[in-house]
Amino acid sequence: MILKTIKERRSVFPAQYTSDKVTTEQINQLLEAANWAPSHRKTEPWRFYVITDDKLSELGDFLAKAYKESAEAFSEFKFEKIKSKPAQASHVIVICMHRDEKERVPEWEEIAATAMAVQNMWLMTTELGLGGYWSSPSLIEQMPKFLPMTKEEKCLGFFYVGNFEGETPKGDRQPIDDKVTWL
Questions:
Q1: C-alpha neighbours within 13 Å on the C-beta side of residue 106
Q2: For labeling, which of 27, 129, 177, 182 is most exposed (least CB within 10 Å)?
Q3: Is the Cα dihedral 147, 153, 154, 156 positive or negative?
């Protein structure tokens, strides 16, 4: 049942991942799930760049350098954390929104559709027993310097994916009745 998967979805952070690689087949399943998100006027604005293997270290080096060049109060600890984080994952899926060239729908709808694609991907990680985590640091603004992004693309973050051992924490939410007004 889908509600069970929704309720079990959790952020599993890269530091929790094992060294076991996620298979290409599993990554393709995540991407296929993402591709079935709804979008107004069927613009399908989600775009993904899948980073793995040696490119993970290159991404870490790039982000750490960008941090060092832009930080107002540089921290060696943060620099090292940024540098090592991508390599802790099996894959990093860079999340981008491709703006409809005709601008048939507002940009916020394209961002929302891309977020729904990520939610589909995240639910699929749960279904497959994988760990997933969406991170959106300010450094994502630098990604056009690292990736062959088009001018219509905007980076919305990184989706880290990896295998992990152990249990995810139980989730909790305030009652839905506290968030709904019936008229």
A1: 3
A2: 182
A3: negative
The burial class, CB within 10 Å (0-12 / 13-18 / 19+), for 89 is buried
87-135: pLDDT as tens digits: 999 999 999 999 988 999 999 999 999 999 999 999 999 999 999 999 9
Phi, psi of 147 (to 5 degrees): -115, 155
Q: How far, in Å, CA of 104 to CA of 40, rounded?
A: 9
C-beta separation of 87 from 57 below 8 A: yes
What secondary structure letter does DSSP report for 118? H
pTM, two decimal places: 0.96
Instruction: Indicate if the pLDDT at residue 13 is higher than 90.
Output: yes
Q: In a 10 Å sphere around its CB, with 0-12 CB exposed, 13-18 middle and 19+ buried, how is residue 147 labelled? A: middle
Q: Domain 7-52+89-166, what architecture?
A: 3-Layer(aba) Sandwich (3.40)
Overall average pLDDT of the 64-91 stretch: 96
Half-sphere exposure (Cβ direction) of 142: Cα atoms closer than 13 Å: 16
Give the tokens for residue 96: 């981008």
Q: Tell me, what DSSP letter sits at residue 156?
A: E
Q: What is the DSSP letter of 147?
A: S
HSE-CB for 140 with a 13 A CA cutoff:
19
